[in-house]
Amino acid sequence: MEQFSVSGNIVDVVTRKIFPGTVAVREGRIATVTPSADISTQQFILPGFIDAHVHIESSMLVPSEFARLAVPHGTVATISDPHEIGNVLGMEGIHYMIRNGSMVPFHFYFGASSCVPATTFETSGATISVDEIRLLFKKEKLKYLSEVMNYPGVLARDPLVMDKIQAAKDFNLLIDGHAPGLKGSEAARYISAGITTDHECYSLDEALDKIKYGMKIIIREGSAAKNYEALHTLIGSHPDKVMFCSDDKHPHDLIKGHINELVKRSIVIHGYDTMDVLRSACYAPIKHYNLDVGYLQPGQSADFIIVDNLRDFTVLKTYINGILVAENAKTLIPSIKSEIVNNFETSLKKEEDFVLEGSDGTLQVIQALDGELITKKIEVAAKVNNHRIISNPEQDILKLAVINRYINAPIAIAFINGFGLKNGALASCIAHDSHNIIAVGVSDKDICMAVNAIIKNKGGISVACDGKVDVLPLPVAGIMSADDGYSVAKNYSTLDHLAKQLGTGLNAPFMTLSFMALLVIPSLKLSDKGLFDGTAFCFTPLLK
Fold it and tell me: Which of 70, 303, 352, 398 is the most buried (most CB within 10 A)?
């Protein structure tokens, strides 16, 4: 392995000092860090950035391609929950992610998924048992139990949920959380189960409550859910309790930036202490999860970046294990051929499958919120034509459908506000967390066309309007492409543009659509089994 040295202003996040010096790398590790009286360059050498919670699958890329797109932004590691593919393929899916990620120079830290399935109120393609979680800890050496999404189960001390938590405790491993909106005694009870983090906070009061009871907060800024503005003051008030994450990042957004964007935003726009910010982005995840990622100390893995200055944070070079993986905004990780795995059995649909018979009444309608995963619930009068309840685009009340992808079953229908489509339909096989097919549209014809495009490709996202359909195939588990990440990002951007031409004002319409089936986030969602009240945690009728 290459031996080399780099000189510059060294950013030591441990001592919180910056000094001129030289970093010597031998056999992929930091050999020495030597201070100098002076240096001829003004560049800065600092630890690489870490995404403290992300679902790689939501980028629509396999891990090896995600790494290629992330390293130009200085990302060297991710804390990754593979429960998306887990819900499709179970243990086979998690092994796929580990295997594919190991083929490139990048630190993927996959967790043992705690919620496969997330709830019993939807159809998933697989389950992961407590014994299998223990096997992942023992044989794969996974470092943590991924987000415990079934927070009602934790509060009720459900035996199955608690057994999974106990499995992590038996291996002295950490437990990640997921408890949107919990405060006060409920937050205290959830945290007392041994859960150490949460990335779902959407208000400062909620985050402060959780910190008070001993939790660390991961500030999320993804393609759909954007909580940075609500939570960034924690960097100033509780810097030792903060990490950064994207959670879900679509490919065209990943090309633009990653954790580096939050670092720059925190320092340049909000004026937070540089070391506090860098420790949140680099050091805190390493210490919390006990990662073997280096932070510029002798003997550690040579994982570091070189930037032009500590304001622009333009990443000049990224090193992982002493290997130069990106330079001047260009990835140096080669694209590899990835295998295809899947679980997709449903048949093509007919337009009449999406018909909802009914008469006058009051609909319970999901209200989607831009930049949020939570939804609201509104009530509106049903629009009826020829004894059928139909979309009402003039009032932004559109038909929403979830189709079981694993078996042929009746289609679940509801209505949604907030998408703003005037024509056409969108469909996606990325529908958290079971990844059935979800579609929204103005007409049954376009909804059916969009859905069938996905079925024909055994996964993907699509846009249909006036007899024309465009699709991005995602054949890996129905949710990822094995193609070059940059071409996937380009094709995704095309579909995103087409969706917005149909009238939606959402920043990330496909990402928002994908969360309308996520039952564990309130308040109203739709599974393949029916309309679900996430606050009461039970099914609820469409018509009142």
Answer: 70
**Two structure tokens written together for 39:** 């240096």
Query: Omega of the bond prior to 113 within 30 degrees of 0, cis?
Result: no
Residue 287 has phi, psi (to 5 degrees) of: -70, -40
3-state helix, strand, coil in the chain (%, to 5): 30, 30, 40
**For 98-153, what is each residue's pLDDT tens digit?**
999 999 999 999 999 999 998 899 999 999 999 999 999 999 999 999 999 999 99
pTM above 0.90, yes or no: yes
DSSP collapsed to 3 states, 72-103: HHCEEEEEECCHHHHHHHCHHHHHHHHHHHCC
344 Cβ partners below 8 Å, 6+ apart? Answer: 405, 406, 455, 458, 459, 478
318-373 pLDDT, tens digit per residue, is 999 999 999 999 999 999 999 999 999 999 999 999 999 998 899 999 999 998 88
Give residue-wise pLDDT tens across range 69-109. Answer: 999 999 999 999 999 999 999 999 999 999 999 999 999 99
Tokens found for residue 273? 């202490």
* 452, two tokens: 């069938």
Cα 42 from Cα 308, distance rounded (Å): 7
Tell me how far CA of residue 405 lies from CA of 113, 170, 369, 431, in angstroms. Answer: 21, 36, 26, 11
CA 297, 302, 307 angle in degrees (round to 5)? Answer: 90
Sort strands 530-533 and 44-47 into parallel, antiparallel or unpaired.
Answer: unpaired
Q: What does the alpha-carbon distance between residue 20 and residue 9 come to, in Å, rounded to a whole number?
A: 4
29-35 and 315-320 strand pairing: unpaired
